[in-house]
Specification:
Elements (H helix, E strand, L loop, with lengths): L17 E4 L13 H4 L2 E4 L31 H8 L4 H8 L3 H7 L2 H10 L12 H6 L17 H11 L16 E3 L4 H7 L5 E3 L7 H5 L2 H8 L3 E4 L2 E4 H9 L9 E3 L2 H5 L33 E6 L4 E5 L6 E8 L2 E6 L12 E2 L6 E2 L4 H13 L5 E5 L3 E5 L4 E6 L3 E8 L5 H10 L14 H12 L1 H27 L24
Parallel strand pairs: 3-4
Antiparallel strand pairs: 1-2, 4-15, 5-6, 7-8, 8-17, 9-16, 10-15, 10-17, 11-14, 11-16, 12-13
C-alpha cells in the first residue's frame, strides 16, 4: 500500500526503492518546522536480505519457501510463533539450516523479546539492531544472506513501515481539520469555552527553565546515569539515547517515565521557583486534593523520530496537556460521543475495556490516514518547540514524533469535567488505573477528600451525575420494553452494553 500524501515515484511491489517527497506546503501551524523535517526526499530501500512482499511470488519462478521442509505447511505468522519458543542458541542453529529459516530466525521482534527478557542493552552496548545487540556483534560481524526469492508480508512489512516517510502525512492539513492555535488563555476563558476543545498555546512554555536549558546533550551530561522507564525496559538514559540515535524499529521504544521529577530532583511550580509548572490557564487540578494518593499524573517523554502513541484516551476520564521542549509532534484527534464512531481502524471491545488498532503508527497511517481526514470530527496539528497542546477528556488521539523530541505531559481534572471523572471511578472500577496500591476504593477516597476541601464543587458535580445515570436507565428501559409508544410485539434475547455511551479510557 502506498502513502496517501506526497508522490510515489517507483513501485514497491517488486522490492525496488520507493521515493516519497514531502509536500511543498508546510503543515498548518508548523511554520517553525525546519526544512529538513518539513520537506525532503526519502528513499525506502529494499529489504537488507532481499525479502519481497508476498504478492511477488506469483511472478517468480523460484520460491525459497520450498526449502522450509515441514515448516512450509505453516503460514508465516505461525512460523514466527513457533520460533518465539526458542532461545538464542536455538534460533542461531535453526537459522543455519537454510536461507528461508535464516530470514525467519533473524526477525527483529524475536531478538527484541530476548534482549528485553535478558535486560539488554543495560548490560551491553547498543549495536543498532536487537539481534546484533543481543549477540554483541558489530556490522562487520553480521551475516548477510541473500534471500531475494523469499516472499513474505510478515517479514517485509515491518521493514517497510520502519522506513516509509511519516512527514508527508502531516502535510496539507485541511483548514477545517486544523487544531486552533492561540498565544494564551486566562483560567476564566479556558473554563468558559475551551475545556472540551483541543488547542495549542504558543506562549506559556517559553518561560520554563527546562525549555531554555534542556536538550538531549544537556540531559545526558547531568542525568546519563539515571534509569528511566522506556515501555517494557528500564535503561540508564545514556543507553536509551544510544538506542534512540540508531535503531531500525518499526515502533521505536518510547521513554515515558512517571517518576522523573523525583529521579531528577526537580522543583515543580512557579511559586516554588521550579523548573516547570502547569500552564496557568488550566486552573486547579482537582485530583490534587488526593496529595500523595493521587493517580499517576506527570511524565517525561523522550523519543526518536517515528516514536509515539497509537490511538488511546487518557486514563480515568482526565484531560491532559503536552508541552514540547525539543522536536515536533504530529497529533490527530477525534471526539467521543454516541454520535461519533471510534477513529478509522480502531475497534473497541463490547465492554469497552480493550482497544484494538494496527500495531504501529506507520501501519495506521498507511491504511487509514486518508479515510481519517475525511471523518467527521477529525482534528490535526503539529506542536512545536515551546508549545503546549490541550487534550480534552475522552478525546481519541494518536501522536508521533517528527523529529527526536523531549516533552513533559500532565493529566488533570478541570472543574467542568469532574462529573465525568467521578462517573468513571464509580461505574468502571476495573478500568481505573494509576492509583497507589493501597487505595482500594478510588471513588470513595476521592469523594471524601473533595467533601473536605471543595464541598460546593462536589455537590454540583454529583448533581450533574444524576441526570446522566437516569439517562442510562431510560435507554435500557426503552431497549428492553419498547419506546413507550406501544407494546413490544415480539420477544428477543441479546447482549447489550449499558455503558456504550461512556468514555473508553
Amino acid at each position: 500500500m502506498t502513502p496517501s500524501a506526497g508522490s510515489v515515484d517507483t513501485a514497491m511491489a517488486n522490492g525496488t526503492p520507493v521515493t516519497v517527497r514531502g509536500s511543498n506546503t508546510s503543515p498548518v501551524g508548523s511554520k517553525d518546522l525546519s526544512p529538513s523535517v518539513r520537506e525532503r526526499t526519502v528513499t525506502v530501500p529494499p529489504h537488507p536480505l532481499g525479502i519481497k512482499p508476498a504478492g511477488n511470488a506469483y511472478t517468480s519462478n523460484q520460491n525459497l519457501r520450498s526449502s522450509l521442509g515441514a515448516f512450509a505447511a505453516l503460514i508465516d505468522e505461525l512460523i514466527i510463533q513457533v520460533l518465539e519458543f526458542l532461545d538464542a542458541p536455538s534460533l542461531l542453529r535453526i537459522g543455519a539450516t537454510c536461507k528461508a529459516l535464516f530470514a525467519f530466525a533473524s526477525f527483529e521482534e524475536l531478538w527484541k523479546s530476548l534482549s528485553i527478557e535478558s535486560a539488554q542493552p543495560s548490560s551491553a552496548t547498543w549495536q543498532g539492531t536487537w539481534r546484533s545487540t543481543y549477540l554483541q556483534s558489530n556490522a562487520s560481524q553480521t551475516s548477510r544472506v541473500c534471500c531475494t526469492n523469499l516472499f513474505s508480508d510478515v517479514l517485509h512489512r515491518p521493514f517497510f513501515c520502519a522506513n516509509v516517510p511519516i512527514v508527508p502525512y502531516t502535510a496539507n492539513i485541511p483548514p477545517e481539520n486544523a487544531i486552533i492555535r492561540l498565544p494564551n488563555l486566562t483560567p476564566a476563558e479556558f473554563s468558559a469555552g475551551w475545556t472540551d476543545k483541543p488547542f495549542i498555546l504558543t506562549e506559556p512554555v517559553r518561560d520554563w527553565p527546562v525549555y531554555k536549558h534542556w536538550s538531549t546533550e544537556a540531559l545526558l551530561e547531568k542525568y546519563g546515569h539515571v534509569t528511566f522507564r522506556a515501555e517494557a525496559v528500564n535503561w540508564p538514559l545514556r543507553d536509551y539515547v544510544q538506542y534512540m540515535q540508531k535503531n531500525t524499529d518499526e515502533s521505536p521504544l518510547y521513554l515515558f517515565d512517571r517518576a522523573f521529577v523525583e529521579k531528577m530532583g526537580l522543583a515543580v511550580g512557579k511559586a516554588e521557583g521550579g523548573e516547570y509548572w502547569a500552564p496557568e490557564c488550566f486552573g486547579e487540578d482537582l485530583f490534587s486534593v488526593l496529595g500523595d494518593q493521587r493517580p499517576d499524573s506527570r511524565w517525561l517523554i523522550v523519543g526518536p523520530e517515528r516514536s509515539g502513541s497509537t490511538f488511546h484516551k487518557d486514563p480515568n476520564a482526565t484531560s491532559a496537556w503536552n508541552a514540547v521542549l525539543r522536536g515536533f509532534k504530529y497529533w490527530i484527534m477525534f471526539p467521543t460521543s454516541p454520535s461519533y464512531p471510534p477513529p478509522p481502524g480502531v475497534f473497541v471491545s463490547e465492554d469497552q475495556s480493550e482497544v484494538t488498532s494496527p500495531l504501529s503508527i506507520a501501519e495506521w497511517l498507511l491504511g487509514f490516514h486518508a479515510e481519517a481526514r475525511q471523518t467527521r470530527g477529525c482534528l490535526e496539528g503539529i506542536c512545536g518547540e515551546g508549545e503546549v497542546l490541550h487534550v480534552p477528556s475522552g478525546w481519541w488521539h494518536l501522536v508521533v514524533n517528527l523529529a527526536p523530541s523531549i516533552a513533559i505531559t500532565q493529566n488533570f481534572i478541570p472543574r467542568r469535567h469532574l462529573p465525568a471523572t467521578l462517573a468513571f471511578l464509580k461505574d468502571k472500577p476495573e478500568q481505573v488505573s494509576g492509583f497507589p496500591i493501597g487505595i482500594k476504593d478510588p471513588f470513595t477516597t476521592f469523594v471524601h477528600r473533595l467533601q473536605q476541601e471543595h464541598p460546593d464543587i462536589l455537590e454540583e458535580a454529583l448533581a450533574q451525575m444524576e441526570p446522566r445515570q437516569e439517562g442510562k436507565k431510560r435507554k435500557w428501559d426503552e431497549v428492553v420494553n419498547g419506546n413507550g409508544e406501544g407494546p413490544v410485539e415480539s420477544s428477543f434475547s441479546f447482549k447489550f452494553g449499558m455503558e456504550d455511551d461512556d468514555d473508553v479510557p
